[in-house]
């Protein structure tokens, strides 16, 4: 009888130890998984106020060193001129808009700034572990609808930036820093239009 009782107790102890060992392994595995997730998690965004100050210092440096401000929409325009010149050089040379840029429209400082901004942003995203190919959209918007809106919005923004002779970088930042009347009007209209369109299209993002 005592032998049977001792055998049961021994079996119970072995089972308890096995359960403890399994629990410890699960806990350790969970901790390792949590540590792995923490290591792979994206880094937080920078403080927007600090980023704004740094951007202002970059703009100030541009004026001091180059004697002019920043811009982004000029680079795609000059790239379009370069690509069109490969097909119809005579047409580009005779164009009132593209013609003054000469035979090498890409030889312009804002083109190099555009390239540097792209690769600098990519490098920063890689370091912050934020590179994830995907289509940003709300649940109410399908992929095709999101891409269509992005295409139409990009065309309108690009066309308008050339009419206004500057985008949010050239007009709002560079022109606004000089307190130019046209730039201040541009910024005002940009915010009014932004709030108006946000009211119309926010249902596509309101999840």
TrEMBL record:
Keywords: Cell inner membrane, Cell membrane, Membrane, Transmembrane, Transmembrane helix, Transport. It comes from Neorhodopirellula pilleata. It is found in: Cell inner membrane. The lineage of its organism: Bacteria, Pseudomonadati, Planctomycetota, Planctomycetia, Pirellulales. One of its GO terms (cellular component) is plasma membrane. This is Putative inner membrane protein. The chain crosses the membrane at residues 49-70, 106-127, 147-164, 176-201. InterPro entries: Sulf_transp_TsuA/YedE. It is a multi-pass membrane protein.
């Amino acid at each position: 009888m005592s032998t049977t009782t001792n055998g049961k107790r021994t079996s119970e102890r072995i089972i308890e130890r096995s359960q403890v060992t399994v629990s410890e392994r699960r806990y350790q595995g969970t901790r390792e998984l949590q540590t792995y997730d923490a290591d792979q998690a994206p880094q937080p965004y920078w403080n927007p106020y600090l980023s704004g100050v740094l951007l202002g210092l970059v703009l100030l440096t541009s004026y001091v060193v180059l004697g002019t401000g920043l811009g982004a929409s000029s680079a795609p325009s000059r790239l379009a001129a370069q690509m069109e010149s490969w097909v119809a050089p005579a047409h580009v040379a005779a164009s009132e808009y593209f013609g003054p840029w000469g035979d090498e429209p890409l030889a312009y400082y804002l083109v190099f700034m555009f390239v540097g901004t792209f690769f600098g942003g990519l490098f920063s995203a890689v370091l912050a572990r934020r590179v994830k190919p995907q289509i940003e959209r709300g649940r109410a918007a399908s992929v095709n609808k999101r891409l269509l809106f992005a295409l139409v919005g990009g065309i309108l923004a690009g066309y308008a930036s050339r009419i206004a002779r500057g985008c949010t970088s050239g007009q709002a930042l560079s022109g606004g820093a000089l307190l130019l009347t046209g730039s201040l009007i541009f910024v005002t209209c940009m915010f009014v239009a932004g709030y108006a369109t946000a009211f119309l299209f926010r249902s596509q993002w309101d999840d």
